[in-house]
Structures are given as C-alpha cells and as structure tokens.
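To the wet lab folks,

You asked to see what we're planning to order before we commit. Fair enough. Below is the target structure as tokens, and below that is the sequence we designed to fit it. If anything looks off to you, flag it before the synthesis order goes out.
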C-alpha cells in the first residue's frame, strides 16, 4: 500500500489549506480564455431557454419548482418524507403529519403547477391541513359543512395517515426504477432502446449490523448476476452497478481499518471479480469525507488484484465539492499508470454537503472538507473534468450532472471525440436536458437508477432533493 506516498500526502494536506488558496490553485488550472467562457455561458443560456420554451418538465421537476426548499411547505414535505416510513407507531405518525402539514399555507400553491399530479397533491394537502386544523370557526360547528369537518377530524386520522404515506411512496416511485433488480431491468428496456444505458444502485445506506451487511452483499451479488445477462458489446454499452462500501460492513471507519481490510476487502474483491468476469461496470460510490482515506486503501488493493487485468469496468466516484477532488483524481491517474489499468471515473458534485458542514462545525475543525460556495464546486468540477478528459487513454470519464452550463462546457472541452466519455443523470431527474443532448449528438448517456423497496428509498430521496433543490443548478 502507498498510504504515505507524496500524492496521498497531498490529498491529506488539503485539510490544512484555506479555501481561497485552493480556489487560486484551481483557477491556475483553467485553460479557457475569457472569450471562451463568455461563449459557453451564452450557449448554456440558449439551452435553458429552449428547455423552458418546451415546458415539459418531469413530475419531480414540477414538484421541486412548486415546493422548493425556500418555502415552508417544501421544508415540511422533506421532513415528512425523510421520517414518515421510519416512525414506528401510528400516534407519532399522526402527530408528525399534524406538525408538518397543518400550519402550512397550501392554498397559495393551489393550481399553480404545470403538472396536474402536483396540483392534485396540493388539493389533498390542503384538505388534510383543514382536517387537522384546530382553529375551525365556531359557526362551522352548527352548519352541515362544519359538522362534516368535525366528523372527519374525529374519524379521519387513520385515513390521513394512510393517504400521506401513499403520497410519500408516490413521490418515491419517481426516483426508484424498480423494487427488485428484475423489475428495474424490465423498466429500463424502453430507454435502452432509445440509446441510454443504466448503472443500478441497490438501495441501502450504511450497514448498522452484520446482518445488514450480509443482506446488502447478497443483493449486490444477485444484481451482478442479473445485469450480466443483459446483452451488450462492452462495458460502455452494457448496464453496470454501483456499490457502497459502507453497506458491506457495519464498522466502515478509519479507526477500524485493520478489521475492515480483513473482513470487508475480501467481500468487495469477490463482487469486483464477478463484475470483471461478466465484463460489466462496477463503481465504488463516494461517501462521507471521513471515509475517503480508507476508501483509497481499498481501491488501491482492488486495482492491484483485479482478477481480469484487461477488464476496463472498474470505476471510482469522485465528489467535486470535496477540497480533495483534484488530488484524488491525480492519485487515481497515477495508480492507473503504476498498475497498467484503464478505469472509469464518475465525477459528481456531491450529496452530503449539509452533513459535512455540520459535522465539521460540531468537531470544531479549522477547515471544512467541502467547498462552502457553489461557485467553487462548479469550478472544481470543470477543472476535474478537464483533467479526466486530458487522460482518456487511461480513464473513461463519466460526467454526472443536471447543470446546463456544466454539460455545455464539457462538450466543448471534449472536442470531437464523442465515444471516449459519457454523461449521466439520476433516474427521475434531468430528463429534458439529457434528451436534448441525445437528440443533438451521439454521446453516450447513462441513467443512475436506484433499485429497492420504499423503506430504503426515503433517506436517499431526501438527499437527492436537498442536493438538487437547494442550489442554483439547472433543476
């Protein structure tokens, strides 16, 4: 292991640098002229204008537009979605629904959305809020409508609970491709016929127990077996799978490094070998910042001991909002050269920003592990993208974004070679932007699609809504 190599040391040193110093370093990496930057901004604006003119947003885009995180109603729905299916008893569920729905002014949103489903949901939420409202006018109790409201208020809590639970599940189905890998593969066929391919994510957050880890491991094995049967010429044209290392061991933390390397590494190695034998892609998902150093140890071992040396489907996810993103990419490129490997690198912006900031504040750290301004994350993303595009002889870049400016810039930076990289989007989000790209050129497109039951979806769902609803991205 090269845990103390100069490149690994540089990764760790990012914590000691100020954000402004790192941004200055990134700016020095930018090769675009002022004229080129202005041209790309204008092109991106044209793409956004064209998409708005089409006015054909997905259900989730309509939902985010109407109930953004800048509204009290949006925040209440996100809190409700995150917690509802994990609350153990009906009484607490009823209290939670009353707390989040009753005080909100749903009437302001009535009929405002372009989506009939969102408008129908608003009607239901307005009615629910009225049912739960304790401030019914006194005169209402003596007229038929008021009596009916009182009756519903007394008898309707289980009905409200069921209705809101079903609404949250409906919200979840917009993000999950299928509750089983077989169902997901069937659902994927329509978009695959249109030129897309998939990366399946078997839903599950960090394992809390060894039983959890066993269950996730079996789910990954089963998924790889099923994905392997899907026809395709090579890794780029076949569906793949994304795995979370924290889902495969309940103590995936640096203080347990020796235990993790002895117990987790063999499990991951067996999954990698299965994917290599089937010649499908397998990506190691990025997680919280404090897991990165341990993840790099595991990734290095996997690169060294790949069962099929010619396999080009091993992938690593890099988060551009991390201060360490660029040195991590440099380390990956160095590993590829050392071990004669060709790997995939999926570049994302990151989905744990709020948690990373709060944890750093609680620990009293001198610096944050992530950039504190979205403009810095966008800069980091484009600099990292340029580094990957400059090294396509040893990496296959996968650009995961719903941002029109980011997509426009990457298309320009990549030049005329459209087969050496791909764009990715989340299932249920960014369809309009990626459909336009699909119609304009033949660059490869992949959909990152969650697979699993609704109980496992909610934490994932809220993380994605926070990620895509709380910044100034295209969505």
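Sequence we intend to order:
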């Amino acid at each position: 292991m090269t845990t103390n190599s100069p490149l690994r040391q540089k990764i760790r040193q990012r914590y000691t640098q100020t954000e402004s110093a790192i941004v200055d370093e990134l700016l020095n990496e930018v090769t675009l002229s002022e004229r080129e930057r202005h041209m790309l901004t204008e092109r991106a604006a044209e793409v956004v204008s064209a998409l708005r003119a089409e006015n054909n947003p997905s259900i989730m885009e309509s939902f985010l537009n109407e109930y953004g995180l800048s509204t009290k109603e949006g925040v209440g729905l996100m809190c409700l979605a995150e917690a509802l299916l994990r609350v153990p008893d009906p009484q607490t569920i009823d209290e939670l629904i009353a707390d989040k729905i009753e005080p909100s002014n749903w009437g302001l949103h009535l009929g405002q959305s372009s989506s009939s489903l969102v408008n129908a949901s608003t009607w239901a939420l307005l009615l629910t809020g009225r049912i739960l409202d304790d401030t019914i006018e006194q005169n209402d109790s003596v007229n038929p409508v008021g009596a009916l409201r009182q009756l519903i208020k007394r008898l309707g809590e289980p009905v409200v609970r069921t209705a809101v639970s079903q609404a949250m599940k409906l919200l979840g189905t917009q993000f999950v491709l299928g509750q089983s890998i077989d169902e997901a593969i069937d659902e994927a066929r329509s978009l695959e016929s249109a030129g897309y391919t998939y990366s399946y994510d078997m839903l599950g957050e960090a394992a809390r127990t060894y039983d959890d880890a066993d269950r996730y491991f079996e789910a990954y094995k089963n998924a790889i077996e099923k994905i392997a049967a899907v026809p395709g010429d090579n890794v780029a044209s076949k569906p793949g799978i994304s795995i979370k290392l924290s889902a495969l061991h309940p103590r995936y933390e640096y203080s347990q490094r020796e235990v993790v390397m002895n117990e987790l590494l063999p499990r991951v190695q067996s999954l990698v070998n299965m994917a290599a034998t089937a010649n499908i892609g397998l990506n190691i998902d990025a997680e919280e910042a404090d897991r990165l150093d341990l993840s790099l140890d595991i990734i290095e071992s996997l690169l060294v001991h790949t069962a099929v040396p010619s396999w080009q489907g091993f992938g690593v996810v890099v988060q551009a909002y991390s201060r360490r993103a660029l040195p991590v990419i440099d380390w990956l490129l160095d590993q590829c050269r050392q071990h004669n490997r060709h790997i995939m690198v999926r570049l994302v912006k990151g989905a744990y920003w709020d948690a990373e900031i709060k944890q750093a504040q609680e620990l009293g750290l001198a610096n944050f592990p992530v950039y504190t301004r979205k403009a810095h994350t966008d800069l980091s993303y484009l600099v990292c993208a340029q580094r990957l595009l400059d090294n396509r002889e040893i990496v296959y870049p996968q650009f995961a974004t719903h941002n029109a400016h980011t997509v426009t810039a990457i298309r320009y930076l990549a030049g005329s070679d459209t087969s050496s990289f791909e764009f990715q989007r989340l299932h249920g989000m960014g369809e309009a932007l990626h459909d336009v790209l699909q119609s304009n050129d033949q660059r490869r497109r992949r959909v990152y699609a969650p697979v699993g039951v609704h109980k496992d979806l909610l934490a994932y769902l809220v993380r994605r809504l926070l990620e895509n609803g709380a910044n100034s991205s295209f969505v």
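Structural context that might help your review: Residues 257-278 form the longest helix (22 residues). Confidence is low (pLDDT under 50) at residues 127-132, 136-152, 469-475.

Thanks,
Computational group
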